[in-house]
Amino acid sequence: MADVDVTSDMIGRDRAVGTSNFWVEIFSVAVFASAVSVLRTGFVFGLTNNLYHLPIVAGLYNEPQYADDRFIQSLRYFASGVWLILSGAERYFDNVPLLFLILFFLSRLLSFVGFLCCASLLGITEQRDRIVFSLILCFVAFLDGYSYAGSGGLFINTFTHSEMANGVALLAIYFAARGRFTAAAIALGITFFINAFFAVWLVLPLALIGLHFLSQRKATFGEISSRALIGLVLCLPLAFAVLHGFLANPEFGRPFGFDYAEFLRQYFPGHVLIDSTSPGDLAGLLGVAVIGALAFFLLRQAAAELRAAYAGAILVYLIGIVVPFATGSPFILNLHFLRSSTVIHLLAALAIAALATKWLRRDKEATFLPACLIVLFLSFDGWAGLAFVIAALMYVLRATGSGPLPSYQRTMGHLVLATTVFLAYPLAIRSSLNFNRICNEAIEEWGAVGAWARNNTPLNAMFLTPSRPGLDGRSEVSTADMALDRASVFEYVSHRRVWIDHKRGGTAMWMPSYYQTWRSRLTDVDGLKSLDERLAYASRNGVGYVIDICQSPEAQSGALYRTKRLCVFSAGGSEPAARKDASSAIGESSG
Fold it and tell me: pTM here?
């Protein structure tokens, strides 16, 4: 069985490089890696959860037309410190897409700083190794998008606050593994400021690191607790800001008045309920967890503290499986324990990328070819890639020793690497570019409709937006339709109210009184089968305008305004005098 000895690498490097040089090297590689990673994932402004974020940045809850809009008003209590800082930021920085792009890059940069710091504990200490390690991470398929069986954000293509917590969490683990418990507690406090749920998930991994220090007599309980307490005290202002956001909510602590688990099934059970998770997702997470476990086992002479953290992350997830069967408390379920699969993904990627990097360095040993295959398979999405990586690791585990590498295997390894770098990686980038192009087209269309609405409808106008794709009975939904559904810029651009949509249901997590409004309206709207039914429903409920997917030339002829796929109709309210085609407007906005 092959073994990886990293002790001498770590000791030699720690003695050779000072602390300042360490951080300079980490930061320089992280900047390069972040640029490559952003190229890999791309960036799209205004998708999915930006529905909650953009009204905060625009300060829509301060505008008179939203005074009685319970969804928009609830966003005052969206208690992430990131959005507390960015509330109303559009007044001072009018190029919000650029602001989000900058924050998106900084979020990715934080992740790579965290990865590289933790990798130093696994023997990735040379500049060349750091670059190789980072490039592997950029193209790890199970870091692309969302975690299996929990849907936690990893390397996604839009900016949200939760992904900022990934890098800070890795830094908390790194500092704890180095015995710097004050710094670890500060990182935990910053994580709480960014995403309180994430901070809760970190407690057990950090506690197990502390227990490891105690078991190895590297520190006493008093030393660990006093250092951690200092860090937590220093973070009290950050904690107070977030807690104030929670406590200022007039509905905080009140009974929800409905079956919260049933609400989660109606809205999005993926963060919480294991019985609503697909077998494919569970198999995917199991594959990732096995890869991480095997990689940490093969790196067993390095950083036992990271293995303790990995065990803690798995335990948190197992707790999340059990919790919904033990309690229906919204407070407990709102901790979204299944979403902690994010930490499993992060640490598994850390371990396998570090292991592959170390094996690639030794291109005359028997582990070189398996490492090349692992790097290739890590770029494959889905079960096949995970299975091939596990198979390669199991092959090495079954080998009797590292031994010399036959020349033909070395040649094969280099061919595999060339295939990975010059074929697999460019194909991954092209796939992301194509997907992001479709998303940007959807954003552009919704932006054009929003701009028209702002310029041509009364301030208090209300809009009924399209139903979710797939409700018409079709078994398959196109990528373009999904992108159109996930675009979240209309209200931000138009400053006009929306009657209801599915995504708004998340508000019930902190403003439970909104649940009945959301559920009743959504049930009614989802039951409408035609444009005529939607127009009649809108008219009955005082909704002045209906936005629908353009279906036919005959239907489009009655539209007040249309883009390539979206048509706006009057439902009997005040109607602008002129009708307008979107083609020229879109051309101007994209120029």
Answer: 0.92
